[in-house]
Request: fold
Amino acid sequence: MQIKLMLGKVTSIKIERKKNIKKKKQTHRGFLFVSCLYKLRSNQTHLLSGFSVLAPAIFSLSVQAATQTTGQMVQFDIKAQRADKALIEYAKQTEQTVVFSYELAKQYDANSVYGFYTQLDALEALLGGTELDAVVDQNGLLSIKLKQINRNDNNMMKLSAVSAAVLPALLAVNSQGVNAAEEVAQEKIEKIAIVGSRVAGRSVEDLPVPVDILSAEALENTGQTEVGRMLQSIAPSFNFSSSAISDGTDALRPATLRGLGPDQTLVLINGKRRHQASIIHINGSVGRGTAGTDMNAIPASAIKRIEVLRDGAAAQYGSDAIAGVINIVLKDGSEGGKAAINYGQYSEGDGETINLDFNKGFALGDDGYLNTTINYRDRAPTNRAGLHGSCQFYGCTELSDGTLLAGDPRELTADRDTFRIGDADSQQFGLTINTGYELGDGELYGFITYSTRENESAAFFRHNANAGGNPVLQDNDATIPLGFLPKINTTIDDISYNFGYKTEFDNDASLDLSYTYGENSIDYTTSDTINASYANFLRYDQGLSAADIRTTIPREAYAYGMELSLQTINIDFTQNFDDYSLAMGAEIRTDEYRILEGNEYAYRDYDTLNGVSIYSGLSGGVGSEDASGGSQGFGGSSPASSVDESRDVISFYVDAESYVIEDVILSGALRYDNYKGFGDTVNFKLAGNWSITDDISLRGALSSGFRAPSMQQLYFNNVSTQFVVDTNGNLVAEEVGTFRNDSTLAQSLGIPKLKEEKSQNRSLGIVYNVTDNINVTVDYYSIDIDDRIVISDRLGKGLSTSLDAALNSAGAGVGQFFLNGADTETRGVDFVATWNTEGLGGTLDFTLAANFTKTDVVSLFSPAGSSLETVKVEDIFSAEDISIIEEWQPEDRINLSALYQRDDWTVNLSLNRFGEYTVEDGGRQTYGAEILTDVKVNYFVTEDLSVNIGANNLFDVYPDKNEIGNSRSGTIVDANGNTVISSSGVFDYSRRSAPFGFNGAYYYVGAEYRF
Reply:
């Protein structure tokens, strides 16, 4: 969090503030509104610095009110630093008023305070060893004075005499400080700047666009162990959809904001651009054809807070910031820490999860900190698959009523639980280091994040009667007689590091120079598989017997790998003037993308050469002659598909904010970006906030934006097995080639290079402080995106002669391409209401947050002048492709949460409503809205040790049963008419889109020790 300085006037008796610092602000769980004015849950106070005397007529708080929370423990995370900065941190973390002399406090160094303390103990520890002392007046207001001050003032008492009165920290100076202040024309008031404002600090309510600040406590109270699920639980505009049997998407879920694509949200770490994941979602799932950011690569225990800017910000932060910006701020405590363990499982008895966290802060002398976090998470797989109802062996006969009469006796006893549909088996280790050190007139800072994740998900089961994937050998039986379930093993490594130096000048200016590197890699290995064509090679070329083939054939292969890296150099300059603030800067960036070839066994077709079967006619009528090439379940990538590409980007921006008239903030930004490949783009943003009254503000913004084609969209290419619904409603395997736009095939069709998406964002909102304890915000938004990059349908032969010729020359049966092919419109409303009060002997914080959004595809088009121009647009972009954009995410999300705190107990109760959504997958099905209930109870056994118990989806809610796009359905009977199996298919729940998954209730227990 940046600390900015603003100017205000001081007199010895009366406080006169600039009119732009007059609104009452509020902090609350989940959505933390931060400013230079803070409000208690039930008692309004103000945070001001640089004032000598505080008039009781302006600020009033009784000692009795203060005593109500004296014994409550508060979690502190304040590093050792200058006393003025430490006192601001104290005020923020206690949600209290602090008034102090900047000139006085900055002369002293405060101690670090980390862990759980009463507010009194924390303040005493913070100021220990300094010449500052705390006192309280007869109205219960605290003050800081030099220790040599005369304590006989009738209006003051020593803090030790009023151990209960620690809520408002009034930090005034002695009369000498007052006189000095009067001689200074202007004093400085600390304000806080967050994502959405590059220049002088603004409160969240002052900003002209909506920003949510999600504290570490709010994230932890969700009971989730993954950052993506945490965000989904408390930020309704955020979606983290699940899918199954979707290759790498099973391991790295798409994260979206406001119903747009995963690549239309920019993610930052400590304000620095975060690299994307190397994976691109090419199967049928939310975000098909896009590449997002791995939200789970950062351990939740390393996060201090998450800032969510819900507005277009490409003019401020560059490409991708169409839906908004998510800024993850890392912990920066210089001492203390915690060790935590959490264990849970689903009500079905699977998905057992163990999560271990360790966080520790270290002081680097008196001027620095190093905060490190280690996380380990082990999650067992879940399985909600239905039973295999179709015949697994040859010889079945279809009867007149559609049932199947078993032929092979093995059919009667075959295992029907053949699929694994649910969460992948996953183990993750994460390490995060965040550090800073005061050097000269500034701070040298940096961070390192590293994670490695091993995942195992399943593909489609290959049964005995599968000639292409499980070929018949010379003994007239399949290579793997009982069938096999291929496993897709992914190793995802993610690393980033940053270092920089930021300095502040005496003229209220600052300069920040930094370098950031990030890389994400994913390696695919297919296990429990075979290359079916290799079985024929062993039979016909090597002369092996059926038994020897079954013993010899490899069951595992490295398919391929992908790497994406990002290098960024940033220079940012800010300057605060009397009437406005200015920021400007530049960015130099290099994107790199690589696809690494797999093992030959993973991609080669051993029984086919140039499309012609090598062993045709050699079987003697027994067994297979031509089977599928590549490893079954997840094929490999050949050297011809290898990629090693880079792209350079250079950007410049200017950003300004000003109070143009009383109570009206206007801000503007202009950014120029030049990309190697498609050229340059210029974008702007205009925004404003009008404080109509002390309690009501209007805010709005108008901006243009863009998203450059991702490296994956530009250069990804491979051939994969995708299961799609045919015209008869059956799920069939199809070998699909994904071709890059500069490939020979794409060029022969006249397909142009990709260009940037362009967006227009408009928003209008109101902030209403109904009472001291009730706050409401409502924001309407409109996002129009032109030339949206989408992946085409699987285009086969017969659509056009030129396409047929191109596919034949490439040896592919079906192809898909990335195209600038759609214009979309998104309209929506965000609503947030909070109420902080006291009751049941403790404090109660209520938050009602909702998002309503609708996206429409208003235009589809094929590349002008290309061979695809003669193909019907509805053939290039199927109804399913349109449905993914428009319907696969809920149109509304509503969250109602309540946090109750009393003594050593904390209870968090949350109701999450997931609205209707529709999936098109061979047919259309609308899934009804569902409400999930989450609860977590935490108890402090001692001041340092706490235990917790809770449930996510307490009442075991599932989405509607699936009625479309199913597979392996049927009824099988024996010779006597007895039913062997009757199943509607293996997909009991939609494998394409499941906003809250389909695992059911999850119960957990945990313990945490703070030190």
